[in-house]
Amino acid sequence: MPHSNTIHESLTAVFQVRRFGSDVSAGRNGKHPELAVLLWERALDPQKGTWSLPGGRLRDDEDLDTSARRQLAEKVDVRELAHLEQLSVFSAPDRVPAPRRIASAYLGLVPLTTEPELPADTTWHPVSNLPDMSFDHRTVVDHARTRLAAKLSYTNIAFALAPDTFTMSTLREIYCAALGYDVDTTNLQRVLSRRKVITPTGATAPSGRAGGRPAALYRFTDSGLRVTDEFAALRPPT
Amino acid sequence: MPHSNTIHESLTAVFQVRRFGSDVSAGRNGKHPELAVLLWERALDPQKGTWSLPGGRLRDDEDLDTSARRQLAEKVDVRELAHLEQLSVFSAPDRVPAPRRIASAYLGLVPLTTEPELPADTTWHPVSNLPDMSFDHRTVVDHARTRLAAKLSYTNIAFALAPDTFTMSTLREIYCAALGYDVDTTNLQRVLSRRKVITPTGATAPSGRAGGRPAALYRFTDSGLRVTDEFAALRPPT
């Protein structure tokens, strides 16, 4: 079996919870929070007019993490990226037309309140309503979404989707949007507090439309990823 | 920046808990169970005499998972491999002498009781006492070990290190060896039973040296990887 020239690339699914559309039954601003992914539209063939994940070819002088950050910086300010992690490698021989490209896929997360400036060909799309996507990029988005949902259940990864401080009502919106189904605010607060994932700041948010008691503000205890739900009996001795 | 020819390879850290040496204070057979990794000794330069992980070059007609299994089959019968998963990609430009090689690293697990036939250049080494290793292969072993320890805390991954049925005493030996520190049998049984990770078979093991009550035999409830410790409040609606 001969070995022909192969290109290595990075591809990043950058997610943010964003408010789309207009829905009077929905929350603040009458808009519905949804998980969104950053895509750019191909102006040239192959697959002109389809939508792609940001990414590109690995250079000789950089490793993949550096390359993924460099490629992303062309689409979105990397200082706005609160988390970046490797997913798996997409290496099916026919995933794109020749020459072969092996893609290292990444998951990137941007907090709710940032509003990155985007190039003209780039925009956020709700993952529930994706446009016609290039090559196997939709599979990468599905994979990234599955990883995010799994990590929401045993890590503090939501720190990278949340603002610095937030009410439980906002945090519930973020979890619901990222998971794609409803979760209960009281349960969420109880479990995240017991695991010390979130900490009350002592401050409160300005009263909402309905008046009433001002809501307590929380923050994430850590700003780096950690497993929050580890098996206590297996913790290393301290 | 020019793009020169780059090779893509797989590298697998295959782990098994094995009994090494002779220690009268240790368990069955007077031997001490330890986490071991499968290595082969390089007969040629570069780095002749150092020890390498099994792996090799990706072919044009296969994806990386297929390639990792094919390369492994040359060292160990793949039917004996109870679990294989991608770790991260090792892509530092200078990780090996030119030409550049990008390595997709894998974690592979073999159950306690299997005894694969090995080629003459290949042997098991305790991870606590590794020989002089090739290139960045020791970093891959460290990474694989960290992933295994993390997954022991929130998944049922130990199914791939355990025999089909086992006593709690044997399962504790497996956890201790894989984690590198002591865990308590009673805690282990309570937590794994509560999470339905293990199930009693109803049978008992033959009496041990000390006579006394025969020990209950258990099995893993599932033979595929699952997150056992997910956040109940975040489970999808059923």
UniProtKB/TrEMBL annotation, chains A, B:
Full protein name: ADP-ribose pyrophosphatase YjhB (NUDIX family)
Pfam families: NUDIX (PF00293), WHD_NrtR (PF21906)
PANTHER family documented for this protein: ADP-RIBOSE PYROPHOSPHATASE (PTHR43736), SLR1690 PROTEIN (PTHR43736:SF4)
InterPro entries assigned: NUDIX_hydrolase-like_dom_sf, NUDIX_hydrolase_dom, WH-like_DNA-bd_sf, WH_DNA-bd_sf, WHD_NrtR
Domain Nudix hydrolase: 17-148
Top-rank taxon, per record: Bacteria
